[in-house]
Amino acid sequence: MLVCVDAAAEIGFCKSIFGAVELSRRSDSSGAVVHAVLGIGETMLMVHEESPHLASRAPQADGSSPVVTYVYVESVDRIIENAVGEGARVLMPAVDAPWGDRVGRVIDPSSHVWNVAARIHQKP
């Protein structure tokens, strides 16, 4: 679950960059997203705004989030380039990692950190 200051913006980012499909959304009377469910490939991801009755808070903009979402995509470099075009910052440029993934790290405009990866070869 991603906690956000502006959940609607995070939903838009996920749709634009990862091709997320919005499966459900509940909003309050002001239009703020209380809870939404997105599908990214076979994965479900929940998104909601900070709420006074929950202790969970949105991450800080410095990239220090203790949570990193690792998502597999078709083209790491294209996704990172598109994410930057949508306001994300690169925290780690894409590299071919020794465990068989091409992987890079970005922080999105809502300060959530993503490892964007693709399998490039299987380890023996």
Helix content percent band: 10-25%
- Per the CATH scheme, the topology name of the largest domain is 2,3-Dihydroxybiphenyl 1,2-Dioxygenase, domain 1
**Strand arrangement across the biggest beta sheet:** 1-4-3-2
* CATH hierarchy class name of the largest domain: Alpha Beta
Shape: globular
Q: What pattern of helices and strands is seen along the backbone?
A: EHEEEEHEEE
Q: Based on DSSP secondary structure assignment, what is the total number of beta strands?
A: 8
Q: How would you portray this structure in words?
A:
By secondary structure, the protein is α/β, with parallel strands linked by helices. The protein has two domains: 1-54, Signal recognition particle alu RNA binding heterodimer, srp9/1, CATH 3.30.720; 59-124, 2,3-Dihydroxybiphenyl 1,2-Dioxygenase, domain 1 (Roll), CATH 3.10.180. It is built from two helices and eight strands.
Strands, helices and their partners?
Layout: E1 2-4, H1 7-18, E2 21-27, E3 33-40, E4 43-49, E5 68-72, H2 76-85, E6 89-96, E7 101-107, E8 113-119
Parallel strand pairs: 1-4, 5-8
Antiparallel strand pairs: 2-3, 3-4, 6-7, 7-8
What's a quick, concise take on this entry?
The chain has helices spanning 7-18, 76-85; strands at residues 2-4, 21-27, 33-40, 43-49, 68-72, 89-96, 101-107, 113-119. With 124 residues, it is of the alpha/beta class.
